Amino acid sequence: MAKLYLENNMKHESQDQFQKYNQFVRRKKIVLILLTLITLVVALFSVGVGSINISITEILKTIFGYGDAQSKTVIMGIRLPRVIAAVLVGALLSTSGAVMQCVLQNPLASASTLGVSQGAAFGAALGIIAFGGGVVNSASAASAVTINNPYIVTLCAFVFGAISTIVIIAISQLKKDIGPSGLILAGVALSSLFSGGSTLLQYFSDEQKIGAVVFWTFGNLGGANWKEILILAVVFAASMVYFIWNRWNYNAMESGADTAQSLGINTRRTMMISMGISSLSAAVAVSFVGIIGFVGLVAPHIMRLFVGNDYRYLVPSSAVAGALLLVVADTFGKSVIAPVILPIGAITSFLGAPMFLFLLFRGGKKYG
After folding, report:
1. pLDDT digit string (tens) for 192-204?
2. Any alpha helices (H) in 49-149, and if so which ranges?
3. β-strand partners of 134
4. Considering only 24-28, 35-39, 150-154, which range has the smallest mean pLDDT?
5. Residues 6+ positions from 316 with CB-CB distance below 8 Å
6. How many CB atoms lie within 10 A of CB 367?
7. CA distance 84 to 69
8. Chain segment 89-128, per-residue pLDDT in tens
9. What Å distances lie between residue 220 and 15, 217, 289, 312, 345, CA to CA?
10. DSSP states of 301-341 as a string?
11. What is the rounded distance in angstroms from the CA atom of residue 117 to the CA atom of residue 295?
12. Residue 161's Cα: distance from chain center in Å?
């Protein structure tokens, strides 16, 4: 009798836990779907914001080929590439930040805090100035730098972004007791090194190039074109396939390297490949739009509050959150003192700096 009672009790408890798990998963899916819908609506709204306001109905008609000539010129030639670039760059930076935080076991890791963005920016500036990968138009116009050879600029950005990544990985492997704060300090040192290199490049350039490259480092989505969007889309799709393919490995590594290794995961190989792909993602994004800080740090931590550390949902939701964050920042930059467009890098820094400080105070010894 007692055995039957215990079996029935365990069965009911198991069913209750199963139902709670399903509700937990359903809630994460709802968050992801709602976030995606909000991002689509905000992106459409952003396309309509500018010197000429355009309704969402007109935008949809133009996208599907039924708009007038003026709408086609404004939307398809200028505004839609800008918004799509914001979506892809935000998604690339955010997913790379989420994966870096996992494989390095460092909640403060991101492309901007580890020096990857600064290294990529130096490489991109080198490609533009020294190797003729860009055309310098004006120091004050929104299209100060036009990338006419995105391949050489992206290659240079990736090489120097990868150098930062390799140095960070080498330090973390050679000095096991360095801790999260030590890696961030190494990132600060690398950032300073590459900033010095960028300064030297500007020192030996003429005044027009100096002004244009400085403007470029503020972060600018205005020069985005369809060729760059194609490259961004390919890199984003490839990186997302790898990250989602390894979602269970990241979940295991979140519990610690020893636990992941006990489950048969090659943590060193996973970390090396993941850091390489994250570096490529950040480098490509930076090479086209300049330095946009804190998106890779802020967006994943915001999503952890809603979906936790389950990388089945954290990776895609971080991508959507990064896209939404950058589209909102760009819309704000275009509209707050229109027709002047504020640099998007400055706006994301205003959002990211308070979040960075919040994490430091909230995390306490965890970040030490």
Report:
1. 888 888 888 878 7
2. 56-63, 69-71, 80-103, 116-129
3. 147
4. 150-154
5. 32, 240, 244
6. 16
7. 21
8. 999 999 999 998 888 888 878 888 888 888 888 887 887 7
9. 53, 8, 5, 32, 7
10. HHHHHHHTT-HHHHHHHHHHHHHHHHHHHHHHHHHTTTTSP
11. 12
12. 14
Residue pointed to by tokens 């309509």: 48
Smallest CA-to-CA distance from 49 within 289, 324, 338 is with 338
**Residue-level pLDDT at 315:** 93
Q: Which amino acid is at 289?
A: V
Q: Which two tokens stand for residue 155?
A: 């290659």
Single-letter residue type at 76: M
Task: Give helix then strand counts, H and E, for the chain.
Answer: 15, 2
Strand-strand pairing, 145-147 and 134-136: antiparallel
Length of the chain: 368
Report which of 161, 96, 28, 158 is spatially closest to residue 297, judged by C-alpha positions. Answer: 96
pLDDT digits (tens, 9 = 90+) for 300-316: 988 988 888 889 999 99
Which residues, in sequence order, are CB contacts of 177 under 8 Å at separation 6+? none
Instruction: Tell me how far CA of residue 26 lies from CA of 32, 67, 324, in angstroms.
Output: 10, 39, 22
Q: Could you give the CA distance from residue 44 to residue 19 in angstroms, rounded to a whole number?
A: 38
Q: What pLDDT digit, counting tens, does each position of 29-85 carry? A: 898 999 999 999 999 998 888 777 788 888 888 888 787 777 788 888 888 999 999
**Dist. CA 298–CA 352, nearest whole Å:** 6
